[in-house]
Amino acid sequence: MLTAVSTETSDAVRKTLEYVRHHRLAKGDRLPSERNLSDRFGVTRSSVREALAVLDAMRITERKAKSGIFLRNTPDEGGLDALVLQADLGVTFDAQLTRDAIEARIICEEQAFRLACQRRTEADLAKLHGLLDTYAALAANGRNMADEDVEFHLAVAAASQNRILVRTITPLMLMSTRGRRRYFESAALRQRSLDDHRAFFAAIEARDEAAATALVHSHVHTAAADIWALNEAAAVAQDAGAPDKQT
């Protein structure tokens, strides 16, 4: 999401969000000035300015003429795009928000897969079959399938013929991009995911709504648990290897 801005600007966005959380700022609270933030974060004022423009666009901050920079919404109150932004920056979500995201994804995908069973066309099946072939080839060659995983799920959502469902599911998928990339580093998990996606295809092809929705529930919960465990292990390893910090 932040591919169009510099690394320093991305860093400034992340540090601003961390500042808001650390100081427990509430909606309407005033943030420090650009100069102050620049000094705190060790980045240029232009990077802070660009970072605030990103946060303004996400409706997290707002500037008031001759008054300063204010918190428009807390990071957790923003829209789904704001959560994707935070995930892209490596901001860790708390357990409750993670559970909420999983629950919302299951609700949306169960409906999308049910509708896909009812409404899928031969063109939809052909696209899904092609994506499965790509998926299998990547798995066989030990390649990471994170992007293809998203593409497959969104293709199923598209087969529901409901564009709003596609737009809702997209950010819910993208929120776990970093964890999904780590997940697909495992050969065993790549194979299990491929098996699940083949089962998805078979259920949609057979118009078996009960099988499709049951698969969604088990697939999302199991994958989320694996990603959570992998993230926790990575965090422990990082802490163990990090030098002591001054407080």
List the helices and strands and how they pair.
Blueprint: H1 7-22, E1 30-31, H2 34-41, H3 45-57, E2 61-64, E3 68-71, H4 80-88, H5 95-119, H6 122-140, H7 146-159, H8 163-174, H9 177-183, H10 187-205, H11 209-241
Number of helices: 11
- Largest sheet entry: 3 strands, antiparallel
Mean pLDDT: 89
- What count of domains describes the coordinates? 2
Give the class-level CATH name of the largest domain: Mainly Alpha
What's the total count of β strands? Answer: 3
Remind me, CATH topology of the largest domain? Answer: Four Helix Bundle (Hemerythrin (Met), subunit A)
Poorly predicted regions are none
The arrangement of helices and strands along the chain is HEHHEEHHHHHHHH
Strand content: under 5%
Based on the model shown, name its key terms.
about 250 residues, mainly alpha, Arc Repressor Mutant, subunit A, Four Helix Bundle (Hemerythrin (Met), subunit A), 11 helices, 3 strands, about 5% strand
Explain what you see.
This protein is mostly helical and 247 residues long. The chain has 2 domains: 75 residues, Winged helix-like DNA-binding domain superfamily/Winged helix DNA-binding domain (Arc Repressor Mutant, subunit A, Orthogonal Bundle); 149 residues, Four Helix Bundle (Hemerythrin (Met), subunit A). Helix content is 71%, strand content 4%. A hairpin with a 3-residue loop joins strand 2 and strand 3. Helix 4 packs parallel to helix 8, helix 6 packs antiparallel against helix 10 and helix 9 packs across helix 11. The radius of gyration is 21 Å and the shape is elongated.
